[in-house]
């Protein structure tokens, strides 16, 4: 009998949440914010229906045939994405964004960090956040660049 070959796979699940925000940096003046963020700097904010695709990767379990139980992934996504973000004003309701500009890039980082605390170590592969059909951010937890 030959040794078993490990089969690796990626598993993705998506959710959609609605949230509002205002793109505004405390490090910039009102004029600089308006110039940089344009209409997205509206003092009253604006909203999106965000679509998030979470991808995990790992070995296909020879007994269950799964990388991860989808029911578990669904519950982790509920806790990490839906509970803190759905129908919220990101800047006012989510403490993380009190000091971090609520760009889609930073939303992806927030989701990554939240999922990392819940998922089995090393299984999270990618977080993809669709702010609109045209604007998508992909975050894979890469290290920061030292300048």
TrEMBL record:
Function text: Involved in the biosynthesis of tetrahydrobiopterin, an essential cofactor of aromatic amino acid hydroxylases. Catalyzes the transformation of 7,8-dihydroneopterin triphosphate into 6-pyruvoyl tetrahydropterin.
EC category? lyase
The answer to keyword Magnesium applying to this record is no
Organism from which the protein derives:
Pomatostomus ruficeps (Chestnut-crowned babbler)
EC identifiers of the protein: 4.2.3.12
Domain of life where this protein originates: Eukaryota
Quote the protein name from its UniProt record.
Answer: 6-pyruvoyl tetrahydrobiopterin synthase
InterPro entries (UniProt xref):
6-PTP_synth/QueD, 6-PTP_synth/QueD_sf, PTPS_Cys_AS, PTPS_His_AS
